[in-house]
Design goal:
- The chain has a domain at about 130-190: Alpha-Beta Complex (Oligo-1,6-glucosidase, domain 2).
- It has 14 helices and 20 strands.
- The protein has helices spanning about 1-20, 40-45, 55-60, 65-70, 105-115, 135-140, 210-225, 250-265, 280-285, 300-305, 330-340, 365-380, 450-455, 460-475; strands at about 35-40, 75, 80, 90-95, 120-125, 170, 180, 235, 270-275, 290, 345-350, 385, 485, 495-500, 510-515, 520-525, 530-535, 540-545, 550-555, 560-565.
- The strands form five sheets. It has an eight-stranded parallel sheet. Strands 13-14-15-20-17 form a five-stranded antiparallel sheet, with helices on both faces. The chain has a three-stranded antiparallel sheet with strand order 16-19-18.
- Helix 8 (about 250-265) packs across helix 9 (about 280-285).
- The chain is globular and about 85 Å long.
């Protein structure tokens, strides 16, 4: 154990120069070095006009609160015109804010006011499909196939046979043939072409065909339209899915690499965030940030759900009090992704999102449990993403009513992660001035549901714990975005999980988390003085120094961050 720990220290000290950094098409915006994102589901955040649906005015009214958390950027789920059969991901106009959210002018004001507080604003870009009510698609349905938008979508020949399970949708359009969808039938796929067109399917156009090239130009137009209004970037929905029949996403990666070159030259401070969930592909393709989450590269589910974000499994989930989980899958894959993406961009592990369960779910709802999990998530390298309400411990609510396509089959109810933000006590939790039965989704019925109002001035609250943790991250380079990371605990004995963080020419920090419901210990080498700087409490940890080793004992459900100072005999714990 001692040799492993010392080797890890040595590795951290030289890791910056051990791998030749690969360069992205353009430099990374400097503001990403300290960025912390806050994801807002607009319909559920704050209602300013009493209609029961959140809007831009509501977000604007709470910018000071958002700033108080310590976040520096907002990402909003789609706010464009839509039929809202998939929560706004079925877009009918990419150039106009949906009336229920506000106007283009209100968005420009929101961006301006956010910037005045040091907060960037990113939009959600649905690049792969539109609504079947979009004017482009309505024109493409016409029998005349030589119109401007005829080839913006993928239509089969009239006599094509749809195989079982096909993503082609039978159409009653004047145009002969059937169209390819991406997800729901109401979401026809935009035509970026096929990497390997099948000669037996003449409708499968190459990526260089006029239709796919026109769609690429349209994508640039959409990006430029909003960037020129002051927006700071985009999170791209299902970014890996654009080009069809593309093994290894080779052609899709080439598309985004070209897009990044154009984007970086025109908007050097702009950011592109991918929903790809395979950072080694996405960042090499040109994205600045990619997620590890409930699908794609394995690791995240084994920590929090263990079944692709749709179910918390008490007996195998790592962040669960039973203490029967493992960290090997996460550590091995996370380490691989970091090595593969060094110098290209940042990995993000979100606290949750609109498509998976919240951090507080199942029997993981106690604030102390959430503090331990958030200590882990907010002391990792890369870019933190906090899903609205996770900072106060809002619960995932299973079996919640379907709303705008939120249910995607058995065990995939997304409504439970999209409930209205809980601002204060009262029948609408301060979300809306309208009646409770008008809200976008029903509130958490628990009379003790957490609220911003109840936690704001409570120094022991989850909200203030998050604020303190982000403040520590901001002032501590080793714990921030670029700091190195190395597991130093025993991967086969995962409780507690212990890892090092270090920045160049600075002190090391040690983070230890014990989500289990039992006391646990880890063995550390003699020679470092540790100063407790943050965690669930100084009394939650005990260090015992001996001649050959030091043991750190942790109480159940606890977390601690220590600064390691010097090479002295023994380890001394001090409150900073």
């Amino acid at each position: 154990m001692k040799r492993f720990f010392l080797a890890a220290i040595a590795l951290v000290s030289v890791m910056g120069g051990s791998t030749q950094a690969r360069t992205a098409p353009s430099p990374l915006p400097q503001w990403l070095d300290t960025a912390v994102f806050y994801q807002i589901y607009p319909a559920s955040f704050k209602d300013s006009d009493g209609d029961g649906i959140g809007d831009l005015g509501g977000i604007l009214s709470e910018l000071d609160y958002i700033h108080s958390i310590g976040v520096t950027a907002i990402w909003m789920n789609p706010i464009f015109c839509s039929e809202f059969r998939d929560g706004g991901y079925d877009v009918t106009d990419f150039y106009t804010v949906a009336p229920r959210y506000g106007t283009n002018a209100q968005l420009v004001r929101l961006v301006r006011e956010a910037h005045a507080r040091g907060i960037k604003v990113c939009l959600d870009l649905v690049a792969g499909h539109t609504s079947d009510r979009h004017p482009w698609f309505l024109q493409s349905r016409q029998a005349d196939t030589a119109l401007r938008y005829s080839d913006y979508y993928i239509w089969t020949d009239a006599d094509s046979i749809l195989p079982p399970g096909s993503n082609y949708v039978r159409s009653d359009a004047p145009r002969e043939g059937n169209y390819l969808k991406n997800f729901f039938d109401c979401q026809p796929a935009l035509n970026y072409g096929f990497a390997r067109p099948n000669p037996a399917n003449p409708w499968e156009q190459s990526v260089d065909a006029p239709g796919p090239q026109a769609v690429r130009r349209e994508l640039k137009n959409i990006i430029a339209f909003w960037m020129d209004k002051g927006v700071d970037g985009f999170r791209v929905d299902m970014a890996s899915s654009l080009i069809k029949n593309d093994p290894g996403h080779v052609a899709t990666r080439r598309l985004w690499h070209e897009m990044r070159a154009w984007f970086g030259e025109r908007y050097p401070e702009g950011v592109l965030i991918s929903e790809w969930s395979r950072p080694e592909e996405a960042l090499a393709a040109g994205f600045h940030i990619d997620f590890m989450m409930q699908f794609g590269t394995p690791g995240f589910p084994s920590l929090f759900f263990n079944k692709e974000g749709v179910e918390i499994k008490q007996d195998t989930c790592y962040f669960q009090t039973l203490g029967a989980g493992q960290i090997r899958e996460f550590v091995e894959n996370y380490t691989r992704q970091r090595e593969k993406t060094r110098g290209l961009g940042y990995i993000a592990l979100p606290t949750a999102n609109h498509d998976c369960q919240r951090l507080a779910c199942g029997d993981r709802t106690d604030p102390r449990q959430l503090k331990v999990a958030l200590t882990f998530l907010l002391t990792l390298p890369g870019t933190p993403f906090i899903y609205y309400g996770d900072e106060i411990g809002m619960r995932f609510l299973p079996d919640w009513p379907e709303k705008e396509g939120s249910i995607m089959g058995r065990n995939a109810n997304r409504s439970g992660s999209r409930t209205p933000m809980q601002w204060a006590a009262g029948p609408t939790a301060g979300f809306s001035a309208g009646p409770a039965d008008s809200l976008y989704l029903p509130l958490d019925p628990d009379p003790q549901r957490p609220t911003v109002e109840a936690q704001n001035d409570d120094p022991a609250s989850l909200l203030n714990y998050v604020r303190g943790l982000l403040a520590l991250r901001k002032r501590t380079a080793a714990l921030a975005t670029r700091g190195e990371w190395q597991l130093v605990g025993d991967i086969g004995r995962p409780y507690p999980m212990v890892y090092l963080r270090r920045a160049e020419n600075g002190p090391c920090y040690l983070v230890a988390v014990n989500p289990s419901g039992r006391r646990v210990e880890a063995e550390l080498p003699v020679g470092y003085k540790g100063r407790y700087v943050y965690g669930t409490g100084l009394k939650d940890v005990r260090w015992s120094a001996g001649k050959e080793s030091v043991r750190i004992a942790m109480k159940p459900v606890s977390a601690a961050v220590f600064r390691l100072d010097g090479r002295e005999t023994g380890i001394r714990i001090e409150a900073e």
